[in-house]
Design goal:
The protein has 120 residues and is of the alpha+beta class. The chain has one domain. It contains four helices and four strands, in the order αββααββα. The strands form two sheets. Strands 1-2 form a two-stranded antiparallel ribbon. A hairpin with a 5-residue loop joins strand 1 and strand 2. The longest helix has 25 residues. It starts with 11 loop residues before the first helix and ends with a helix. The model has no long low-confidence stretch (mean pLDDT 78).
């Protein structure tokens, strides 16, 4: 006969808070590394619900040298899946940012300004 008993919800809040604290600790562990890479936190918001949702928004505080960013990321290996994911995303964003110039890829922006100079 199948087990028709209800699941144990006696410590649901405690388990949920434990998971959130673990998540917040991992984000906190990644923040100093991200700051060295040239990022600052603009938003860290948690919405409680089923499932709970979190938003972490970072702002680049300048155009850091991509080689320096890669060295920082290499030194910061370990720390869990969330930390490594945040760092990998930050490195990818910095790499993209380093190849862009005013929203265009650098070669396209250069060509755009050359065309404007030729037209004037």
């Amino acid at each position: 006969m199948p087990d028709l008993s209800l699941p144990d919800f006696s410590d649901t809040t405690g388990r949920l808070l434990t998971e959130f604290n673990t998540f917040a600790q991992q984000v906190g562990d990644a923040l100093p590394i991200l700051e060295q890479m040239g990022y600052e936190v603009t938003t860290f918001k948690v919405t409680w619900g089923l499932p709970p949702k979190a938003r972490l928004r970072l702002k680049s505080s300048g155009n850091s040298d991509i080689q320096k960013v890669k060295v920082i990321a290499t030194k910061a290996q370990g720390g869990g899946i969330l930390v490594s994911t945040l760092i990998t995303s930050a490195v990818t964003a910095k790499r993209i940012q380093s190849t862009m110039d005013v929203g265009f890829p650098r070669h396209s922006a250069r060509r755009f300004w050359e065309m404007i100079g030729d037209a004037a």
